[in-house]
């Protein structure tokens, strides 16, 4: 049997693919590049809809590794019933840290310093000065302290923030200080001027930012979401925005794409970017490094990196 590897990056852009696999390019086109039954390694197309990514899975009866190019793997988990047992599902930890952390900082600074208002004034050729809050001396809470959350903190430190609090699924120590468990959110939220969401979408985090969560945030606080849209209850957030009590900067929304006419577009105090945390010039070189390393590990039968789950395992 041929052991194929489907890659969503053109093959001529690689110079160091390991021997032992037959490489085929597929980036979500209607026609498959080969028989899905011969595919042993499936690197999932990037920035494609879930139905496109999942379309070949039912026919991939001999796949052993599914590698995403995203930090989140919720699209593949949603299609888990189509995947045969024994498949390692791996995420792209490290690929998006720089780009997504940059955007988190960009959205935070733009929102605090009133950049959307400057853009509107420029379009109207109107000079309008004013007083705006700085990031300096603010207390920041990062909810979801993995690789991206850590990268966000790296970029916050030079801005002289007063404090960074860190939250993850479970508590632990980190090089910069303690990471609090999710259960401690109620006491941490009232202390934060800025709350940045960088958590993966799981059963635990879906709807995490609900009316109760938002009510615990201090008056005038900023919510920044570079995680996944469904982490936030949109209706509850709209209520806080429309009251003027909170502001928000959102790279992801629920629903997404945000349709024309949705009240979030015109809500006061909100800045929206169209899910652009990952796709930057930093993506491709990091994505290629992750793919090549995983392929080398696969052909040499070495432990894979960033395994989120193995299908059919009772431990998941």
Could you write a compact summary of the structure shown?
By secondary structure, the protein is of the alpha/beta class. The chain has ten helices and 14 strands.
Would you kindly provide a written description of the structure presented here, covering whatever features stand out?
The protein has 10 helices and 14 strands. It has 316 residues and is α/β, with parallel strands linked by helices. The protein is elongated, with a radius of gyration of 21 Å.
Quickly list its features:
6-stranded mixed sheet, 8-stranded mixed sheet, 14 strands, 316 residues
Low-confidence stretches: none
- First and last CA, distance: 30 Å
Q: How confident overall, as mean pLDDT?
A: 95
Fraction of residues in β-strands: 15-25%
Radius of gyration, CA atoms, in whole angstroms: 21 Å
Produce the secondary structure layout:
Blueprint lengths: L3 E4 L14 E4 L13 E5 L6 H5 L10 E3 L6 H5 L9 E3 L6 H16 L2 H9 L15 E5 L3 H10 L6 E6 L3 E3 L2 E5 L3 H4 L5 E4 L13 H6 L5 E4 L8 H10 L3 E4 L12 H4 L3 E3 L10 H17 L7 E4 L6
Parallel strand pairs: 1-2, 1-3, 3-4, 4-5, 6-7, 6-10, 7-9, 10-11, 11-12, 12-13
Antiparallel strand pairs: 5-14, 8-9
Helix pairs in contact: 3-5
């Amino acid at each position: 049997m041929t052991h194929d590897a489907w890659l969503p990056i053109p093959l001529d852009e690689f110079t160091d693919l390991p021997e032992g696999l037959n490489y085929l390019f597929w980036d979500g086109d209607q026609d498959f590049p080969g028989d899905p039954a011969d595919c042993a390694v499936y690197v999932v197309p990037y920035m494609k809809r879930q139905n496109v990514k999942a379309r070949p899975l039912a026919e991939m009866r001999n796949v052993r590794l599914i590698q995403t190019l995203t930090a989140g793997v919720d699209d593949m988990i949603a299609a888990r019933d189509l995947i045969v047992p024994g498949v390692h599902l791996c995420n792209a930890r490290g690929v998006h840290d720089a780009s997504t952390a940059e955007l988190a900082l960009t959205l935070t600074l733009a929102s605090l310093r009133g950049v959307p208002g400057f853009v509107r004034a420029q379009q109207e050729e109107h000079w309008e000065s004013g007083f705006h809050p700085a990031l300096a001396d603010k207390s920041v809470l990062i909810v979801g302290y993995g690789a991206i959350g850590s990268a966000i903190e790296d970029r916050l430190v030079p801005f002289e923030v007063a404090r960074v609090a860190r939250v993850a699924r479970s508590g632990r120590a980190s090089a910069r200080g303690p990471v609090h468990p999710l259960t401690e959110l109620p006491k941490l939220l009232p202390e934060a001027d800025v709350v940045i969401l960088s958590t993966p979408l799981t059963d635990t985090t879906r709807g995490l930012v609900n009316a109760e969560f938002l009510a615990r945030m201090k008056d005038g606080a900023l919510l920044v979401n570079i995680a996944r849209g469904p982490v936030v209850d949109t209706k509850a957030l709209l209520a806080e925005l429309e009251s003027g009590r909170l502001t928000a900067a959102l790279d992801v929304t629920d629903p997404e794409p945000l349709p024309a006419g949705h009240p979030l577009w015109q809500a006061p105090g909100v800045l929206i970017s169209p899910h652009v945390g990952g796709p930057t010039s930093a993506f491709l070189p990091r994505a290629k490094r992750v793919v090549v390393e995983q392929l080398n590990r696969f052909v040499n039968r070495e432990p894979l990196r960033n395994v989120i789950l193995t299908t059919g395992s009772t431990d998941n």
